[in-house]
Amino acid sequence: xxxxxxxxxxxxxxxxxxxxxxxxxxxxxxxxxxxxxxxxxxxxxxxxxxxxxxxxxxxxxxxxxxxxxxxxxxxxxxxxxxxxxxxxxxxxxxxxxxxxxxxxxxxxxxxxxxxxxxxxxxxxxxxxxxxxxxxxxxxxxxxxxxxxxxxxxxxxxxxxxxxxxxxxxxxxxxxxxxxxxxxxxxxxxxxxxxxxxxxxxxxxxxxxxxxxxxxxxxxxxxxxxxxxxxxxxxxxxxxxxxxxxxxxxxxxxxxxxxxxxxxxxxxxxxxxxxxxxxxxxxxxxxxxxxxxxxxxxxxxxxxxxxxxxxxxxxxxxxxxxxxxxxxxxxxxxxxxxxxxxxxxxxxxxxxxxxxxxxxxxxxxxxxxxxxxxxxxxxxxxxxxxxxxxx
Length: 390
What we know:
The chain contains nine helices and 15 strands. By secondary structure, the protein is an alpha+beta fold. It folds into three domains: 2-31 and 304-374, no CATH class; 36-137; 143-290, no CATH class. The chain has a ten-stranded antiparallel β-sheet with strand order 11-10-9-8-7-2-3-4-12-13. Strand 5 (188-195) and strand 6 (201-208) form a beta hairpin. Helix 1 (17-77) runs antiparallel to helix 7 and helix 8 packs antiparallel against helix 9.
């Protein structure tokens, strides 16, 4: 399947842009009210705590001024007979106010603890809404994957970043363990061995590593890899790292590719195919994932209520393609793409600017701002932007 504009030029992202755009509008409509509800809760709790603190401060001020007033009165009268009376008055006041302060402080802690639980509950909902979208819906993001494998589980992490926005996923594979064969297929590397019955001589042999376990894997959107494999006894370990046409192979810490004789036996093309095999494995086998954290300019975007700002970053990327769809399309009121099958059959898919604007404006001012960034009203101007091909 190929995705193209109406003028038959290819989209910079080979994805169903219309469906991605609809998904983006949907998560915007769901996330903004959740974030606004957290902000309202924070304002409510802040007001409650402010009232409680004011009452405590009022008691403290009263106790302080009472002490000054009573002592001043006793000094003006000038008799020592009032000392015991003053002590009783101040002690009674302190005891009474102390009990009331304690009640208010307990209430303050209850509000603070309850507030934190309420925030976390809504923040979890925000993460749940964003989880299915962010993992593949952000165009131009640089991504980095890490996987580790043992005999029971294959799990890892994914980090994506673009324009100050960072997001992290926990990943789980459908495999219980990961072998070289499952990841990249049949694979062999050369090694020195001693052969002969009467006279031992060192010779180079190729070892099939297909059954070796993948203990760790790193991969990024630039197709760089770092792959560590070892046998089941964990007494032989190989490391492959690099990208493009430059790869380095190590057995333990000894570089095989630097050995003129061993290096000549390494099949370079087999190494250059590894990134593609890794990419295929990630697409096929990573079926379970959870969004764990979203940052904006290195701050937690969820707890600091900056999710709307994160959506604006995504909208800027989408807005560039909206602009191109309108510029290269026949109807300037519709965002249209074509989908071309392998046999050359083409179908069109579109969504109108009015439909997008109507849906977003129902959210409120935040939705209207997103609509303007996307370029679906007459006042919008799309910023020039660069993005990577996903």
